[in-house]
Write a structure and sequence with these properties.
single chain, 144 residues, alpha+beta, BirA Bifunctional Protein, domain 2, 3 helices, 19% strand, transferase, lipoyl(octanoyl) transferase, BPL_LPL_catalytic
């Protein structure tokens, strides 16, 4: 499976740019991956990478004052399907997953816990779980 997160933020209200938002999402994903034991980095190609040619997390954002879309972090994804497409339109690159990198099963639920904590830290906010799924009920405080 793939962990998807589509935070909705009013960037104008918090005086932030779309570039800031993408970089903050990348930092949150990298911190979550590090918490699971996978070292990652960014590159000129948007997303989070484990090597120069292997992407573990895609980021697709649209924003006109309010953000839409978000991240797709490969946890225990069947990667064979990516052989039929050019992921993110980037030729010569591949995709990987947390499970492949750690050589053990990493569930979406396990990754979600790490990502939720990392997101709250990077975005300096508190998150609430509504009890039905990992979801953000509201961003109570956003300082930076």
């Amino acid at each position: 499976g793939q962990l998807t997160a589509y935070p909705i933020l009013h960037l104008t209200a918090i005086n932030k740019t779309l570039k800031w938002y993408v970089c903050a999402l990348e930092r949150a994903v990298m911190q979550a991956c590090r918490g699971l034991g996978v070292e990652t980095h960014t590159s000129p190609d948007t997303g989070v990478w484990v090597s120069d040619t292997s992407k573990i997390c895609a980021i697709g954002i649209q924003g006109r004052r309010v953000t839409t879309h978000g991240i797709g972090l490969n946890c225990c994804t069947d990667l064979s399907w990516f052989g039929h497409i050019v992921p993110c339109g980037i030729h010569g690159k591949t995709v990987t997953s947390l499970s492949r990198e750690l050589q053990r099963h990493v569930s979406v639920s396990e990754a979600a816990g790490h990502f939720t904590r990392a997101f709250a830290e990077v975005f300096e906010c508190s998150l609430e779980d509504d009890g039905t799924e990992i979801g953000i009920e509201e961003l109570q405080t956003l300082h930076s």
